[in-house]
Design a protein that fits this description.
Two copies of one chain form a homodimer. Chain A has helices at 17-35, 38-45, 49-56, 59-72, 77-81, 87-102, 112-115, 125-152, 161-180, 185-196. By secondary structure, chain A is an all-alpha fold. The first copy, chain A, folds into two domains: 16-69, Orthogonal Bundle (Arc Repressor Mutant, subunit A), CATH 1.10.10; 74-199, Tetracycline Repressor, domain 2 (Orthogonal Bundle), CATH 1.10.357. In chain A, helix 1 (17-35) crosses helix 4 (59-72) and helix 8 (125-152) crosses helix 9. The radius of gyration of chain A is 20 Å and the shape is elongated. Chain A starts with 16 loop residues before the first helix and ends in an 11-residue tail after the last helix. At the A-B interface, helix 1, helix 8, helix 9 and helix 10 of A face helix 1, helix 8, helix 9 and helix 10 of B. The first copy, chain A, binds a DNA duplex through residues 7-14, 37-39, 47-51, 53-55, 58-59.
DNA sequence: ATATTTAAATACCAATCGGTAAATAAATAT
DNA sequence: ATATTTATTTACCGATTGGTATTTAAATAT
């Protein structure tokens, strides 16, 4: 018996909110913010509009909640990546995991944070800017990790942590576009391997 | 006097079609296909809908004509890049020109071919697939150039031309996302430089 | 002058957009 | 039993979507 099974007053909700959120996430992931219509959302979630609005607010809030579920679930591995022992291993795991994830068969191709509102009408500027913040956030996490690596001595002293982080973020974002365009997991692995060849390790000169 | 100034029958068109196409291009570039509404298009072009439809067909055809104008104009440099004498110089000019172009101040940030229909509603699948073809086309041009370079001997024999082309296309697509997210020209230059460090030249081992 | 051709302007169309008011149904509290 | 609370359902809202039929205007051909 779950901890939330205590009897609540009023008619009980007939759908599971987390399951519904997963379905909404899948649509936003595939269609983007503007491309996901309320008609498709309500149809897929199996609930009607007033129920959706009562449970989640409005389309924008439903998107934000889907986005939170996305970062807590499918892409939670990004947070683990910075725990790798060296800067190189951080980069390697970041790119290899991305190649795997962006082309996985059990969910939409590509990264929702990269693509859900890249170009859109003026009315979606809030969502567009929110996703820009999310992109910058993971880039910053990488940059902070590489600054630490430089202090630790496993990253060349003449390397630029911020540039390296942006380099990885750029590759990830490009790989996301590639995945959406039909690139295979192996093709993205090849790209990751190419990108890691010039990594500025401690003992190497970066020139 | 232009060669097309011979008198035509009927009421003369009051707007210049190429100028109108440039304005339409700017909107599709910034907003994407779905994000560009006919209201914004007609308002910016300074013509009303029936004139637009008589001149360009419909929204999808207007987009396709804008796209042709895009490839013939702003991104025509991509075709020149493959004329560089070595594979490395091709890669270098491709990435450096991209960094410059994607962040230029006189037009929207990012690349229209990359972003105009990455995620969208089902009704835009035709445009989405068309842009995927365009992306693949320039990647293939690079791959063909690198195959030639390998025969010419200025690219390491153990390098994979197709992977290198996809690597560059991926970087370009990622840089486009970065530009849209606010990255500066110098930041993209740094990424390009990083990406070129490991280039498999003739005399280097690619491992 | 008049007919013909082409474009522009006004007004409109059905369909879809995100969002909600009002009525009904299912649970608990008293 | 009844009141209260909450969810679902149906039906609707104004605004916007892409797209057009109809009328009017401006040019040339005869």
């Amino acid at each position: 018996m779950s901890i939330n099974d205590k009897k609540l007053r009023g008619r009980p909700r007939v759908f599971d909110m987390d399951e519904a959120l997963d379905k909404a996430l899948a649509i936003f992931w595939k269609r983007g913010y503007e491309g996901a219509s309320l008609a498709e959302l309500t149809e897929t979630l199996g609930i009607n509009k007033p129920s959706l609005y009562a449970a989640f607010g409005n389309k924008e809030e439903l998107f934000k909640k889907s986005l939170s579920r996305y970062t807590a679930g499918p892409v939670a591995f990004v947070k683990d990546v910075i725990n790798e022992p060296t800067a190189f291993k951080v980069a390697e795991r970041f790119l290899l995991n991305a190649a795997e994830f962006l082309t996985a068969a059990n969910h939409p191709k590509g990264c929702m944070i990269v693509q859900a509102a890249l170009s859109s009408g003026e009315s979606s500027d809030i969502v567009k800017d929110l996703l820009i913040q999310y992109r910058y956030a993971y880039e910053q996490q990488l940059a902070a990790r590489f600054e630490k690596a430089q202090i630790d001595g496993d990253l060349a002293s003449d390397a630029n942590p911020k540039s390296l982080a942006k380099y990885l973020a750029t590759l990830h974002q490009g790989m996301s576009v590639q995945a959406t365009s039909g690139a295979s997991k192996d093709e993205l692995f090849e790209i990751a391997k190419l990108a890691l060849k010039n990594w500025p390790n401690k003992n190497k000169s970066s020139n």
